[in-house]
Amino acid sequence: MKIVIAPDSFKGSLTAKQVADAIAAGVSKALPDSEIIMKPMADGGEGTLQCLVDATEGKLLQATVKNPIGRDISAEFGILGDGVTCVIEMAAASGLYLISSEDRNPLHTTTYGFGQFIRAGLDLGCRRFILGIGGSATNDGGAGMLQALGIRLLDQNEQELGFGGGELSKLRRIDRSQEDPRLKECDFIIACDVTNPFVGPNGASHVFGPQKGATPDMVKKLDENLRHFADLILATEGIAIHDLAGTGAAGGVAGALLAFLHGKLQSGIQIIRETTMLAEALTGADLVITGEGQIDFQTAQGKTPCGVAQLAKQFGIPVIVFAGSIGKGIDALYKEGVTAVFSIANKPMTLEESMTQAAELLEQAAEQAVRIYACKQI
Q1: Helix (H) / strand (E) containing 311
Q2: CATH class of this structure's domain 2-40+286-377
Q3: Nearby residues of 35 by Cβ (< 8 Å), 6 or more positions away
Q4: What would the pLDDT profile of 26-84 be if each residue is shown by its tens digit?
Q5: pLDDT tens-place string over residues 304-339
Q6: DSSP for residue 159
Q7: Which of 97, 149, 152, 291 is the one with CA 20 to 30 A from 20?
Q8: Which stretch of DSSP H or E encloses residue 220?
Q9: Average pLDDT over the chain, rounded to whole?
Q10: Radius of gyration of the chain (CA)
């Protein structure tokens, strides 16, 4: 029997690879003669870097970049096994989790460190980039990123703008004369599952600004500033990003990537499936096992278990999903190819207990679920 194990991480507890290892151990106990294929997964958010590096036998590297409030930190990025594809999680440089609640002010936070990551990849010879842009603390429309790449954003006195979305109201001219010339040789693939536009009531500032510390007055100012930025981009680049779906992702950084770097938006799980060659692994499989820490109504909106199940459905393969906890609204998953959803908890326990014991609980749950599955096949 061939079984493909393709889980996401259990955030705060186990990496996707560790989850796959634990499930595989349980499967081996139930079916010691089975063929097990492990494909650790992600959906473009946290864990994408580790997943793709593991899947392609690439390597993790360190770079000194600025965090959202401009302080230098050492952060991780990766090169895939092909040696030319750089993988960057924007949150590693510009993430909300990097700063305290007191410092969460999108008028001032910057994407400069994200741009430094891209430059580090260029210095290593990379010309293809996979960018995971979830979890940012920023709402600067990618301004800081552009500045790090040599694109000058100038005020009426021909002075460079400072950091943050609050500075964009001062923008009068975009100068690309000092832009890194290597950018023209590159392909940028943006892992993005949101459809929000750059500006407006459903745009970057109104929808995501409050999560990043913006008050109602800040939200209004940030949206006005992004609109001003978009107007100038249209005037200078001939590209209208105001209402383009997805350009509001990561505080508008997706819009800057489209306008200046000709980035291509793509579903995060689709990027992972293609890079890990999951479809090839599913050929001839009898069962697929996936999972992540929390399964609920959001899982059907582009999360890993849903993306894995949708592909498995095309092959007619049943799918078992494991979760640390199960919330409301999981019925939608059954239409996407999921056969059954199991919690790994085996008794009443706290979240801390569940996270601490996750590997053991996964192994036990996998063994029992596969024993039931195998019994039905006899």
Answers
A1: helix 304-315
A2: alpha beta
A3: 1, 2, 3
A4: 999 999 999 999 999 988 877 889 889 988 899 999 999 999 999 999 999 999 999 99
A5: 999 999 999 999 999 999 999 999 999 999 999 999
A6: P
A7: 97
A8: helix 216-237
A9: 94
A10: 22
Domain ranges of the chain: 2-40+286-377, 48-268
250: tokens are: 């990561």
Name the amino acid, one letter, at 255.
Answer: G
CB 338 within 8 A of CB 309: yes
Instruction: To the nearest 10°, report the CA torsion of 261, 266, 267, 269.
Output: -90
Query: Which residues contact residue 55 at a Cβ distance below 8 angstroms, ignoring those fewer than 6 apart?
Result: 39, 40, 275, 276
In the 8-state DSSP scheme, what is residue 361?
Answer: H
Per the DSSP assignment, residues forming a β-bridge with 35 are 2
Pick the CATH number of 48-268 from 3.90.1510.10, 1.10.10.10, 3.30.530.20, 3.40.50.300: 3.90.1510.10
Q: Do residues 43 and 304 lie in contact, with contact meaning Cβ atoms separated by under 8 Å?
A: yes
State how beta strands 128-132 and 85-89 pair.
parallel
What letter represents residue 135's amino acid?
Answer: G
